[in-house]
Amino acid sequence: MSVEYKRIEHWIPLQKEAEEKMLAEFESGDYTVENPLVKVNAYLINPLSAVVLFKTKEETAVTIRVKGKTKAADIVHTFPKARTHILPVLGLYANYNNTVEITPYRGKTTSIQIELGDVCDQSVVEYIETTPEYFQDNIMLLTPAGSEKSIGVDFAGDIRFHLTALCVFDAKRLKNGNLLIGTDRLIKLPYYMSGLYEMSMVGKIYKEYRVPGAYHHDEFEMPDGNILCLTEDLRSETVEDMCVLLDRQTGEILKTWDYKKFLTPGEGQGLSYTDEDWFHNNAVWYDENTNSLTFSGRHIDSMVNIDFDSGELNWIIGDPETWPEHMQKYFFKPVGNNFEWQYEQHANLITPNGDVMCFDNHHNSTKVEAKKVLAHNNYSRGVRYKINTEDMTIEQVWQYGKDRGAEFFSPYICNVEYYNEGHYLVHSGGIAYDQDGQPSEALGAYAVQTGGRQEAITVEVVHNVKMFELKTNSNFYRAEKVKLYTQGNNLELGEGQILGSMGVTLEFDTEIPAEATGEMLPEDCNARVEDEMDKFTFFSRFMKGDLVMLMLENGDEVHRYYISTTSQPAKAMCCGSFLDSDDRNTRIGINKAGLSGTYDIRVIINDKKYETGIKIEC
Length: 618
Known about the structure:
46% strand; globular; six-stranded mixed beta sheet
């Protein structure tokens, strides 16, 4: 058979199986605090973790201490009282014989060794500048933008957390202590994912929230626990221009915002604008004080605020140039000194006093081609604006990064975080250099593919004093400072839930005349199918310019899906993790929603139809 078939199981049933085997082994033995059962990477996707299991005669609290390479690097957590102890061990080192101390309350300490091999690439960390007194037992969690997967770095620059599942986009700590992050299940290139995972830091996935229009870029936990999720309509001609509110318990969509209802595509366009990606939404923020949503639109160089209930436009922060006259009333008038607009910004947020912050990529530094500023003369920065919605004025009250010039310039991705007044994080995650070592505007993998290199610089400042700087030799989408443990158990047993639903994949309406050859798809197409419970992905290689159509056929029932064989560098590529270095290689994802039965997969190349020998059950 010329086409390979592979069944891909979802992490949730795989983790259920692994957990049940672990618990069965635990119950079949006599495991005590002096002789615990130890399972490394118990949930399959965090190799720098383990679970220790034992029983005590009396109900007691237990403290776990992962010994650091220095005393200041110890990771310590005390678990609530119990007789049966199933405890996650977090913060292990790769390529190291880790010492873990287990201490019952007022009891004797038991030391165990957990030796790990080469399970993550420490060399991605170039340097770190901070102190253990400042950074304490936090880690800086970096999420993927390219070939690297999520890592968490301690004050010494050592990686203490790593996800081997390619979970992408923003990672947020939920109020219950769990992590919310995009799934590793790609629906559509370049980076539209099936939805969101809620998981523990040990890697156990409690819920997948599937989203019919896919997930991208950002999410937000509402005060009531429900989740805002950026999405789109997979069957429309535009992308990244919708947001939905997900029910936390069921995954049901409670409310939808379509940006075309309060903005007109084409108005206010910046230099990266395309008809398809007219807004390019990379952030959402809910402000409880004003009951409003703020969206960051990279391709209109603007942050847009709407009323949560009505969806009506309140205001726009951005350069009003290129916007029509009837929209000017929504813009602010700059006041004060040293004011500059932001361009192609990311990660907007509202501070407790109503100020607006973002990472100002400052890509192009203008909305007009003739005024464009190139990377070697440009800068990026974190910026904070004070706005007055009564008189519609705006004042720039803080910035960091401009003085660093091109070394801090990122044409894409990045974020800021507000910790407290004067205490901020600024993550310039998309720095690129060309093959000659000059600052570049290449996005993500394109820099490396053309002989250049990538970097990311993450900074924390306290009242304008730099207290932390981390540099990596790869791009990372966002940075988030978190603790490995939160108060409580940090691990709940039982099978996770797969919630929500998948959307129907866009089909090609036109029938392409093709001769049914009865022949197998040529070997040089390198084709394979990865089949999942709710979708499948067809990987293949074609010559540039070929007309290619994937066909699903069940008797007279036919579904057609166009496969593009032409490519060009994207104007926006916030996550290049799924791009192939060989642009002849293609992949197309088909959701099983809307399909029912058994389908033969066939492929049209130009005017000939080929067999694959693969059947898909839907």
